[in-house]
Design brief:
With 147 residues, the protein is an alpha+beta fold. The chain contains four helices and seven strands, in the order βαββαββαββα.
Length: 147
Amino acid sequence: MENGKVLAVNSMARIEHVEIDSADLNQGFEKFARHLQQNGLPWPQLLASAFTAEKTRIMMTCDSETLDALLRTLERSKDLRKQRETLSSVSLTCFGGISSDLPYKAVQILQRHGIIADKYVLSSHSVSFFVPVESREAAVMALHSLI
């Protein structure tokens, strides 16, 4: 487990961030759920969330058509807005990766290819890097060297 073996490299082309004015994380999710329901939108795949300074931030993905529809509805909302530029994700599915230097090795490989990740998220079986959309394919190719 300590060595970290990469099993696959996966990516998601489009990751969006929504910011919601809220008193806490629970209220932020309630407002988001209500917005989806009122606009007849399905739930996207939620990747991460955070709450600071009376703002809930949700990072999500799904098909482009649904994301486009969601972003259009945000233009009419006073409490919800697109937070930042669109990113892509590149993920390493791994065995024992988070208990090793695998995340560091991956950052070094990306850096050698001129790719700077905006953030990364670790789970028990994956390391996900969030990169500029235009860097996604190059990041996938570069990280394949770890397999």
